Prior knowledge:
Layout: H1 9-20, H2 24-36, H3 41-60, H4 70-80, H5 94-113, H6 117-136, H7 142-160, H8 172-182, H9 188-207, H10 213-218, H11 236-243, H12 251-265, H13 270-274, E1 281-282, E2 288-289
Helix pairs in contact: 1-2, 1-3, 2-3, 3-5, 6-7, 7-9
Amino acid sequence: xxxxxxxxxxxxxxxxxxxxxxxxxxxxxxxxxxxxxxxxxxxxxxxxxxxxxxxxxxxxxxxxxxxxxxxxxxxxxxxxxxxxxxxxxxxxxxxxxxxxxxxxxxxxxxxxxxxxxxxxxxxxxxxxxxxxxxxxxxxxxxxxxxxxxxxxxxxxxxxxxxxxxxxxxxxxxxxxxxxxxxxxxxxxxxxxxxxxxxxxxxxxxxxxxxxxxxxxxxxxxxxxxxxxxxxxxxxxxxxxxxxxxxxxxxxxxxxxxxxxxxxxxxxxxxxxxxxxxxxxxxxxxxxxxxx
Length: 291
Ligand SMILES: [Zn+2]
C-alpha cells in the first residue's frame, strides 16, 4: 500500500465519496491494484480521485454500481465533466477519468471472477502445482511467486472460465488476447512482468510433457505485442488515404503533409525529420538529404 506523501483535502474527500457509494472496502483495493500494476504514486492518487468523482456523481444520479457501463461513463465524461461544479479539487480531465474508470471496472471484474467457485477449484489446484514448481525447482522468492501466481490465475480464468483446464487447447490467439487486455495502460516493466509469468508457467507445463513449444516461441516478443497489430507497410490505397487526410489549405496541414512525405518518400526516421533544416536539403539536385 503506497503512503501518499501528504493527504490532501481532495484525497480525504475522495475517500468519503467511495464510502457514500457503498464502496469503501474497494478504495484501498483500488490503490493496491494500481500500485501492483506499476503506477507511480501521483498517478494512483489522480486515478483514485477520478473514480471518487465519478462515484459521487453516480450516487446523485441514483445509479447503482452494477449499472455502470459505457453509457453511464459517457454521460459522466461528456455530459457532466464540462459543467462540473462538484468541488474545486475534482479531477475533470476526461482522458484521466476514462483510464481510471477502465482500471476500476477491470479490477472489479477480476475480483468477481476469482470468487467464482468452479474456477477456484480447478485453477487453484493448477496454481498450487505451479507454485510448488516455482518454489522447489526454480527457487523463486515469495514475492515473485505471488505475482506470477496472480498473473497465471487470471490467464487460466480468461482461457477456461468454468471449463476444465486443458493447456493443449490454448491457442496463440488466446495468449495474445489475454496479454493485450491485461497489459493495457501498463508500464513496459509491468508488461514484461506479465510476459515473464506466462513464460515461467509454460516452461513448467513443457517439463510435464505438455506440447507448448509454439506458445513459448512466441513469448519473447511479448513486450512488442502492443505493436503486433500494425502492418509492416502501408498499401498504395492506405498511403493515398493517409496523404489525403491533411488539410493543405493551412500551414499546420501543409507541415504535417510535408513531415509525412519525408517519412514515406525518403524513409527518414522521426528524429531525422524533427531535426531537418533547410540547409540539409540540396534544392538544385532535388530532395537530397545532405547529412
Ligand atoms: Zn463533478
